[in-house]
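2024-03-11 09:14:02 INFO worker-7 job=invfold-0412 stage=load source=structure_tokens
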């Protein structure tokens, strides 16, 4: 009587197949190489053009609040001349019932820079959350 013996142990291959692991690692490497420059928060900022059509359209509405500084240093709120000290309360009363606290500033090209900054300080004293600076579109 012969005993039948199984030789299944000789058929087992205990070598690790590295090909699928290398494939996965290469795919991950490529993904990280593509995504890494996108995560970087430096530079690559597209700024809106000066005096964009949306800002000009909003500034031309009847209920918009516009502050203007002339070349001789006078400050106007709408069509009325105001002093820098009076700007805060007047702008606050104009923006009282509005949801968007936005004011537009027009500064003459030859206006004194310090006077324009005084107007900006007056607007900020009113608690304005957004200040739109209006400029003329360059003809290039």
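2024-03-11 09:14:09 INFO worker-7 stage=emit residues=140
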């Amino acid at each position: 009587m012969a005993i039948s013996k199984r030789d299944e142990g000789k058929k087992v291959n205990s070598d690790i197949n590295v090909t699928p692991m290398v494939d996965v690692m290469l795919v991950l490497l490529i993904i990280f190489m593509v995504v890494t420059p996108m995560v970087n928060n430096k530079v690559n900022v597209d700024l809106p053009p000066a005096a964009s059509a949306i800002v000009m359209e909003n500034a031309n509405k009847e209920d918009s609040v516009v502050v203007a500084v002339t070349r001789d240093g006078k400050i106007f709120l709408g069509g009325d001349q105001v002093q820098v000290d009076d700007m805060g309360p007047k702008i606050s009363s104009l923006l009282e019932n509005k949801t968007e606290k936005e004011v537009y500033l027009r500064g003459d090209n030859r206006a004194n820079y310090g006077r324009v900054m005084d107007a900006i300080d007056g607007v900020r004293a009113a608690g304005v959350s957004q200040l739109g600076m209006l400029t003329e579109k360059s003809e290039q």
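2024-03-11 09:14:09 INFO worker-7 stage=report msg="Residues 41-49 have pLDDT under 50 and may be disordered."
2024-03-11 09:14:10 INFO worker-7 job finished
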